[in-house]
Amino acid sequence: MIMETSNSPVTPRAPLNKGKVTGQKPPLKLCEIWAIRTRLQMSSNLRELALFNLAIDSKLRACDLTRLCVRDVCQGTRVSIRAMVIQQKTHRPVQFEITEQTRSSLEGMDRPSRIALVGCSVSESDSRLGPPVHTSVRQARTSLDRVHRLR
Q1: Which domains does the chain have, with CATH numbers?
Q2: Which InterPro entries does its entry note (predicted)?
Q3: CB–CB of 66/138 below 8 Å?
Q4: pLDDT tens-digit profile of 76-115?
Q5: What is the dihedral of CA 31, 36, 37, 39, to 10 degrees?
């Protein structure tokens, strides 16, 4: 007995990324950074402005940026001039300078907003009000998507 095979025509599918540039995106130009900062200041979104400024100052990866704690950036009620963070991927300490513009955007926020900005509470005994509010990678991604739309 001979088996019949169907010779139905296969419709070719176009690739999903056809016509799109793949790979690493080029870094932001200085004029684009200032345009994004200006738009964030005009929209008075202090949290995203401070997060964007910290990202530009530190040049940290997104996973390290979302793990920043208030105690990494602040000393008491003042924002530090320099901060040191241990990178998650390389496990090496990285020191970066916090510019005056970033410090002013962080100081412009009240304490609860500052805690929500960066990930963990000022001290481990700050649990009277419940667990600290974390910035997840998804929240940071949404923030960055909004910033890229401003470009």
Answers
A1: 30-150 (1.10.443.10)
A2: DNA_brk_join_enz
A3: no
A4: 778 888 988 888 889 999 999 999 988 888 877 766 555 5
A5: 120
